[in-house]
């Protein structure tokens, strides 16, 4: 499954960021990319998901893909392990499998 329910590929800003903020944001959201827990503000900064993980190293994976592995193995999110709805897990999986597309950040302007 590499698509959203409407048949499109999921993007970070449209589909994943709301999940990460709700489920991971208390530790992994912040004003700068590297000031959060584990030096990874992936819930508030798309580019952090592209950084190589310091946790998933065999094989070496980007943080976004490592997040999926940790969700699936129950080690994340802390205090909510096993509590993410299957629909959210499937959406994160589809995002990773379709190349972790960025989408349009609603906070960025074209100026």
Detail the topology: elements first, then pairings.
Layout: H1 12-28, E1 52-57, E2 60-62, H2 63-72, H3 86-97
Antiparallel strand pairs: 1-2
Strand order of the largest sheet: 1-2
What percent of the residues sit in helical stretches (DSSP H or I)? 25-40%
Counting DSSP H or I runs of 4 or more residues, the number of helices is 3
N-to-C span: 36 Å
Note the beta-strand portion: 5-15%
Largest sheet, in brief, is:
2 strands, antiparallel
Q: Total strand count, please?
A: 2
How would you name the oligomeric state of the polypeptide chains in this document? single chain
The helix/strand series, from N terminus to C terminus, equals: HEEHH
How would you describe this structure in keywords?
single chain, 111 residues, mainly alpha, two-stranded antiparallel sheet, 3 helices, 2 strands, 8% strand
């Amino acid at each position: 499954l590499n698509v959203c329910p409407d048949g499109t590929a999921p993007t970070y800003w449209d589909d994943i960021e709301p999940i990460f903020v709700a489920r991971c944001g208390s530790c992994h959201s912040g004003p700068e990319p590297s000031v959060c827990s584990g030096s990874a503000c992936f819930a508030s900064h798309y580019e952090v998901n592209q950084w190589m993980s310091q946790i998933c190293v065999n094989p070496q994976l980007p943080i976004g893909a490592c997040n999926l592995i940790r969700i699936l193995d129950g080690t994340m999110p802390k205090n909510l392990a096993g509590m993410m709805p299957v629909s959210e897990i499937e959406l994160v999986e589809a995002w990773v499998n379709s190349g972790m597309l960025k989408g349009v950040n609603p906070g960025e302007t074209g100026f």
